[in-house]
From TrEMBL:
Keywords attached to this entry: Hydrolase
Organism: Hymenobacter koreensis
SUPFAM superfamilies from the UniProt entry: Galactose-binding domain-like (SSF49785)
Domain CBM-cenC span(s) in chain numbering: 2-117
Pfam families: CBM_4_9
Protein name from the UniProt record: CBM-cenC domain-containing protein
Keyword Hydrolase: yes
InterPro entries per UniProt: CenC_carb-bd, Galactose-bd-like_sf
Length: 147
């Protein structure tokens, strides 16, 4: 899976997290700030993501932080089938990987799925402000299966 946020314009409801203020590629990225706690969310059944059971994924994206105050989190959550019960809550704390400000920096993390993540489990990916005091931007998200 990959998304540069260009193709969702017009398909998703209007959301102030989808912005043209900055972009790594194209015109759009996702942004969180003091007025936006969570970005648009990617929500998919694990069984729709891959025909075979995944051991996990490498989550990659490009992040832009204006300063250390933009320490938001790119979250990945897996919920149990037909439930909001979280069976995995992981992600990338942007401030741990972004050390250059006012430029796009590639971030990544390998995430191993728990044994109870199954075909009907929902995986969600989103940008979360998580107490950041400055804006944070994310673009060009990619998921690659772990071998």
């Amino acid at each position: 899976m990959s998304n540069d946020f260009e193709s969702i314009v017009g398909w998703a409801p209007e959301n102030k997290s989808l912005t043209t203020e900055r972009a790594h590629s194209g015109r759009y990225s996702l942004k969180v700030d003091k007025d936006t706690e969570f970005s648009l969310t990617y929500d998919v059944l694990l069984g729709k993501l891959s025909a075979k059971r995944l051991r996990g994924v490498k989550l990659e994206a490009w992040a832009y932080l204006p300063n250390a105050g933009g320490d938001a989190k790119l979250g990945l959550v897996i919920n149990a089938p037909n439930s909001e019960q979280t069976i995995l809550g992981e992600g990338i704390q942007l401030g741990e990987q972004v050390k250059k400000y006012n430029e796009w920096v590639k971030v990544s993390k390998d995430i191993v799925f728990p044994p109870n993540a199954e075909y009907m489990s929902h995986m969600k990916i989103f940008l979360w402000r998580a107490g950041a005091s400055a804006p944070a931007y994310i673009d060009d998200i990619t998921l690659t299966p772990l071998d």
